[in-house]
Amino acid sequence: MSEQVYPHLNNSNTKIALTEGDDSFSYADVNQRINKFATGLLNGSDDLNEERIAFFIPASVDYVTTMHGIWRAGGIAIPLNVASAVAELEHYLSCASVTRMIANGKYQESLTDLCAQMNIELLSVADVMAEEVSQLPVILPERRAMMLFTSGTTNKPKGVVSTHKTIHAQITTLIEAWSWTDQDSIPLFLPVHHIHGIINILSCGLWAGATVHLFAKFDIPKITAEIVTGTYNVFMAVPTIYVKLMQYFDTIDESEVKKICDGFRPMRLNISGSAACPVKLFNQWKDLTGQVLLERYGMTEIGMGISNPYDGERRAGHVGQPLPGVQAQLFDEDNNPVTQENVPGEIRVKGDNVFLEYWANEKATKESFHDGWFCTGDVAVLDDGYYRIMGRSSIDIIKSGGYKLSALEIEGTLLTHDDIAECAVIGVEDETWGESVMAFIGLKAGKSMEYDDLKAWCDGKMSSYKIPKAIQIIDALPRNAMGKVTKPDLKKLL
Ligand code: MLC
Ligand code: AMP
Question: Which among 415, 435, 434 has a CA at the least distance from the CA of 424?
């Protein structure tokens, strides 16, 4: 690898890098904006020296300018979920000791009080942008580049730190494996605070010299209208998106459905990931569009690890083989490698794609590695040469619509409700969301609770997608002899 991996951006000057609504921006435009933004951030200093700068911006040219501007000026970029509740933001900002926050318009207004309280300078993209470009620092691969917050088996999300080298490895393996070129054109409608949107779509597209079409949200009519006219040749989404597209097809004329499916048919690639793609969904999509979904497996801490082949058999219900440069191995509970097929083991991963650390959490970082392998907590088998995911070692992690949720985090918030004595949250199988959040609640004496009231109470205390989709009031939670709630017994109650 060359000394300086940066800037993670193609230099095909006149080509369109990004579209946002009716506007389009060439690589030269974007590059110039980034350099001016980086200069403004530096404000006369030589290097940001890993200053943590957060931003609260949906997918847009301003988002790209901010992310790359922070990278180019030597800072650590922290993209935040624009749907976060204030309590969640407070945790991210204090955990990362953020000093500056970038947000525009209504997003900026929503942060004014919080930033003032936390002594964080709140700026818009225009506030930062310099008139001219100054000398920018040399960024070496080992420098920290990005921090993404991820839920886990603790009640507060942890900051996953990747370096420029990590990002470089995560991008280049996908460029090679999925045959990205500058002829590609892809829509980005997934949230841009997670790697699926940031790395797999945006960064791979911008590295390859492709065109990335930005949407602030998953706007089905707008996106499908573009699919009909053949704007895109690559489509990447979580399984829930494919389910939602098919639900949408049930609401429109058959002739419209046909046009949309005919728009998918000639694409060179449709990918599903971030959660298990049910075999039924894989087959339905193939019947409708002729597309054989390429399913792959990844995680915030490792980028993408395992993928079905671009050329070759894409096997339903399986995630494929390790990507180029990624080492993967199954291990049993005694930390011995699992060498036999169809014997379950935890997926552990090694390679330049693996993150550096959990921010300011040496203990969690140490605990997540064993003998140099990152322990994913996902259990799989090797089945005739293809990995098949069997589940997770922790019942406290829920994957809903591609979002990873911590049962403990949701329980922690529910327990602050005056009427709740005890509660336990689990994920239950759901056709749309993969898993949906369900809360079992024990109330204080003499209290009652309706679902709608609890949902309204949760509003603003947690991101809306974390709010339980259903509750069950029970007299007492099942517990073992140690007093620990036995969540598998709750599943049996359903
Ligand atoms: C939205 N809602 C959800 C939800 N998303 N509920 C549960 N789980 C979810 N994922 C709820 C909202 O709270 C709201 O509830 C209602 O659905 C409508 O909200 P919306 O925002 O209009 O929904 P929609 O736009 O349809 O969102 C669905 C979605 C979104 C699938 C587009 O969830 C999404 O973008 N998911 C992808 C997340 C992602 O990128 N994960 C990758 C992580 S990286 P109400 O009650 O208020 O109406 C990773 C590594 C890897 O996993 O391998 O890639
Ligand atoms: P996140 O921490 O949000 O990056 O989510 C990563 C987790 O998503 C992994 O640890 C898996 O549990 C899950 N995941 C990602 N891709 C797949 C897949 N194709 N099949 C099953 N689970 C997946």
Answer: 415
**458 neighbors 471 (Cβ within 8 angstroms):** no
Instruction: List Cβ neighbours of 71 (8 Å cut-off, separation of 6 or more).
Output: 6, 7, 8, 77, 139, 145, 146, 164
Proximal ligand: closest to the CA of 298: 1
Residue of minimum CA distance from atom 50 in ligand 1:
299
Ligand 2 centroid from CA 349, angstroms: 14
For the beta carbon of residue 14, count every other beta carbon within 10 angstroms. 8
How do strand 158-163 and strand 357-358 relate by DSSP bridges? antiparallel
User: Measured in angstroms, how far is the CA atom of residue 465 from the centroid of ligand 1?
Assistant: 6
User: How long a stretch of residues is the chain?
Assistant: 494
Ligand 2 test: best mutation among 151, 193, 272, 297, most atoms within 8 Å of CB?
Answer: 297
* Partners of 20 in the β-ladder: 23, 214
Domains of the chain: 3-139 (3.40.50.980), 195-392 (3.40.50.12780), 397-493 (3.30.300.30)
Find the ligand nearest to 465 CA.
1
Q: What residues are paired with 306 via a beta bridge?
A: 297, 322
70: nearest Cα among 7, 126, 25: 7
Whether the full predicted model's pTM is greater than 0.85, yes or no, is yes
- Mean pLDDT, rounded, for 401-413: 96
Q: Which atom from ligand 2 is nearest to the alpha carbon of 152?
A: 2
Give per-residue pLDDT as tens, 49-105.
999 999 999 999 999 999 999 999 999 999 999 999 998 999 999 999 999 999 999
Which single residue is written with the structure tokens 């793609």?
277
Tokens of 3: 């000394």
492 pLDDT tier (thresholds 50, 70, 90): confident
Query: Which residue's structure tokens are 């730190």?
Result: 161
Residue type, 100: R
